[in-house]
Protein 1
Amino acid sequence: MKNIKLVITSFLMLALMLVSSCSPETFSLDEPLAKSDIHYEITQDFVVDPGGNTVILKNTTPGVVLTWDYVTGKSSKATETVKYAFKGNYTIKITAVTGGGIVELDPVTITVTKDNLSYVNDPLWTALSGGVGKKKSWIADNGKYGLAQGAMSYADPSTVVEWNKFTPNWEPAGNANSSSDADMHWGRYMTFSLDGGPFMTVHEADGTTIQNGSYFLDINAHTLTTTGATILRPDNYIANASNWNNSLKVLTLTENQLRIAVLRTNSEGQWWYIWNFVSKDYADKYVPVVTDPVLDEGFNPTFAPGELLTMLTGGTGAGRVWNLDGKGNPVDWVGKGIGWTTGASSSYNWGWNDDWTAISGNSWIRFDQWGGKLNYTRSQNGVVTSGIFTIKAATNEIDLGGETLLQNSTSWMNPTVNVIKVVKAYNKDYLQKGIWLGTSYDTSKDEWFVFHYIIP
């Protein structure tokens, strides 16, 4: 009997273990804290400011993050000092992030009884708003005022993008990339005021107000925060970024130019959008200086009879190999005679990519004059083909017959034409500087897409 009891007991224990191991685990969130359990302090420093302009916000609840929305800005700091320049009532909204969820606390209204305009009497506040008691309007830069190429620029997030320290990777002319005139809403303008308060409004071209709010310029952090109104941006970019209002990076702010960076946050990955604005007053009064455009050196070259052929081939009975410049400046967009890239990094990962780098190491084209024919041999990543080419001297065009210059099926930059154009070349220095061969032309932008070939 004793042995039987032991066996039965063992089976019971095993059954309990199996039931226990198969039971689903259940979890539950903590209950949200009651408002009365969340403590904070909001005090006005009447010693610093008799009018109560200086307000100290302090979170005194451990384990809870408070977000302060204090009208002129937002903060999640445990202790935040706010300085109101203008008298008035300010309602501070407080949101608590707890282990049990979000708790909206009762707003607190404080009263400032005197102006302290020293908080906005600064050259940067003046540049943005026109100064205390004034207001100033800004429009998107269309690229015609001598300040920027167009309404927007791109900057790599792995590089420094700070006040007066940034290098755009690309600056399309005129409209933002892929934005129509309807997206741009040309004619709209935004106004920053210091007349009675830090007010911001956005207007249609006819002056109709479409947004009405406030703003705060942090002159030390060089950031701009807006409430109730948003900086001008094209319709097709609105969904690409999640923060259009809080602590926007101010990169440039002068009397005539404003440049603001907003980080892209959609599925395309992080990238800095730089929005370029020009003072409306400056734009309205701007008179363009009529001069000959400063074109890239070597753009649209003129050749003596037979000179281009000699450049390509080295002369009668000779041949010359040209390599794709994978380590220097392999691609460029030459718009209105002016290029913008400075190297492969200028368009890396959206134009030039790792596949292009691999291909460029073993892609070349050889032009020669043999047997009374104009021949070319083309290596595409090690695959060699050949054919006959012709030259149209009047337009600097090279016809490759049935072939293209090169191919990369993983890239949208993949050339599709067999007639290429010498867009840039140096009649005397081509041995050192190479040639730029255009594979497509955008008539709307007067822009050539070119590949840079050099002599190895």
Protein 2
Amino acid sequence: MERVYTIPLRNVKDIKRTIRAPRAIREIKIFLTKHMKASEVKIDESVNHVIWARGIQKIPSKITVKAVKDDDGVVTATLAE
């Protein structure tokens, strides 16, 4: 199964600025686990680079990812083009 999601990260900006980027990565995993009914979520390096591009404090307000679920229930998230 393959889907494209735009994941909102606005709520992550309400927490302490020194932990925003790691929290955004966790929120992406939580979002994909819930929406794809996955047992495990793997995030590609390109998504990580977009989150951390402007540092730990200034994360993007939303990100578009392509999620692919294989037969084992593992979801791989890559940056959507």
Protein 3
Amino acid sequence: MSAPTRDEMLTIPQVIAEIGVPKATFYRWRQLRKGPRAIKLPNGAVRIRRSELERWLSGLEECA
């Protein structure tokens, strides 16, 4: 039996590079709560789980 893999925590610049949108667009989506759900760490840094990004992208695919 294999060990469970850890869900990768992506930074906002990593997510922006992966989905190919301008930084301003991504932050506007966050403000409008239309982007992937994020986690705010105690130090103020924001991370997005890889699984959440994939779920969010899948949801967009169904709407298209």
Protein 4
Amino acid sequence: MESTDFDELAGRVEGVSRAVLHIAAALEIAGLIDGPQLAQAWRSALPLPGFEVAGRTLQELAHALDGARSQRQALAP
């Protein structure tokens, strides 16, 4: 895989991850999903051999969702 191919793939994965995070946060704000439960489910995803990076990505998404919630709560009146 060439560097440009890797950059393209990494950018697409990052874009999809950010979209999922924004959708999850919006649904949590709307009261349609339980954000802490979703974050815990992401953290609890079983690691599969050969998919360590995917597991790490889910951990990062869970952390980001929790961080966004904390930030919203800190800004709330």
